[in-house]
Structure formats: C-alpha cells, structure tokens
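Format is chain and fold; as here:
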Amino acid sequence: MDNVTHSLTALAMARAGLNRITSRATLLLLISANLPDIDIATAPLGPLRYLEVHRGYTHCLLALPLMAALSVLMTAAIFRRKLSWLSAWIVACLGVASHLLLDWTNGYGIRLLLPFSSRWFHLDVNSLYDVIILAALFLAAVWPSFAGLVHREIGAQVYKGQASSIAVLTFFALFDIGRAVLHQRAADKLDSVLYGGEVPLRVAALPSRLNPFAWNGIVETPEGFRILRVDASSDFADPDASRFFEKMPRDPAITAANATPAFRYFQYFARFPVWTEQPAWIGSQRATRIDLTDLQFGAPNSGSFHCVALVDDAARVLESAFTFGSGRDLGWGEGTPK
C-alpha cells in the first residue's frame, strides 16, 4: 500500500502500546514500517529495473529480521544513543511485518518466499490507495491533538490517544475481514456463469477505493479476457455486458517483442496479460506497434503498466520499453508516414 497508510498504521501501533516496550518506539516503527520500500533507490535505473526489484527481496520473510535490525541501527544513529537491543528489535519486526501484511492485502502482490520461490501473493482485499482506511487512520492520528485541547480546557488529564489507536487498528482488521468475505462472494459470482458460452479459466475480483461492495472483475476464458463490474451485495448482472479482449495469436511480431527483456519480465509479473497490435510508422518505414497490458492496472491504451515495442516487417524489434504510464506517452509509431 502507499507509504502514508504504512506510516499512519505505524503511528497507531506505537500509540496503542508498543511505545511502552522500548524507547523511541514511534520513530522506530515509522522507519521499520516503511523500510522495505527502500527498493525505490533503484528508480533512477529506469522503470523496468524498478519493476524487477520492487516488492522483492526487501519484502520477503527471510529479510524481515534484517530489515528490523537495520531499522534499530538507523533509529539509534538518529538519536545518537544506544537502544535496548532485543525489545527494540522485536518492535521493529512488528513494524516490518505490518508493511508486508498490508502489501499482501492488495492486488499488486508481494514475493514473500524469495529466494526460494518467486511466486507473487495477492489477497485482492484493499486497493493501493484505500480512501476509507486512510480516512480512519488519519482521524485516529489527529484525534489526540483535538481531544487534548478539550481536556486542557476542562483541566483533565491530557489524552494520549491509546484508545483511539486501538480502536482504529481493530476497525482496520474487522474492515479487511469483512472485505475478504465480500471479495470471496464477488469472485464466486464471477466464477459461477458462462461468458459467451465459455467456462471461466480464472477470475479475479479487485476492490474499488470507495465502495466496499463494488468490485472490478477480470475473467479469463479460452478465447480471451473480460472486464466487468460486480456488486457483492446484489444479483449478478448480464455477464456478456462486459468488455472483451481477444487472445492474440503468437505471430512473428509478438514473438519478436516477447524475446526482449522488458516483455520477458512483464510476462512474469502480469496476472492478466493482453496483447494488442496496431500499424505504426517510423518516418517512412512501416512497422507494427505491440502493446502488452496487465488488465489489473488498466485496459490497452489506458491505465498504467504497459510494455511497448515497435517491430518492422522483418520481425526485428526497433524499440522496446516498459512504462508505468499508458504507453501513449512514448509516442512511438503514431501519426502517418513522412
């Protein structure tokens, strides 16, 4: 999930009682709950390299104790004082674990078992930026300041926020349990019908940011992929009223593009890969533009996470790249011959 959610969760954990276990626990939790995203340091190396590294070794279970130890060292260095090693390390382990758990809950996924397995784990319960969860965590973060003003006005003991922090963490857990139930209901609905007479091979129900009952459905059939909306609280609508993307045959242009590093890795990463082809021109030279899209991040020519290649008539790859955008920003092959 996003780093604001990770940080606010860490703050709630500290105020809920972990700040009593060791000194400097709040900063320690803030660092440890965000440290796995240190892989962002590879971003200057380009989008493909960052995609390869992100949610990899810094997010696996084997690295959890090492990430926690590094968090303790960083906290001690900031305050220039020695911490109680064991208690600080235990708290930092909880901070790192909270990061891994939250990342596991969304559709992007996490590779928990590296280096023994490169499998991606996805719970598909939360979106990357969940408005409801963020709002609850933010309210719990600012509530102690507001309540403190009231308590000082009436001369009562200053409110430290433990109760509101425990409440929001409890809400977070119960909210995700409820979403897990709704997710399974939505997935079962997607898997229970035929699509154009075809039996679904795989289905996914991805959450929306605002409505916990609304899910974005993706269905793979022998002939292609369909995307549609499904409401977990009502009867399933017409399954054929969906957007269909045909599975493209592996012609020479697609085969050539698939041999490039960007396309090879994206094939491993993508859960629902859709290929598209369209005519393109480089100056006066005719080419074919190949796009590979993961439907969980958007449709072809829209959304994000795309691989794009330009292939000439001799099946030679002229350009190839991965982009976090829609692919249209590259501008490759657009327009008419010159």
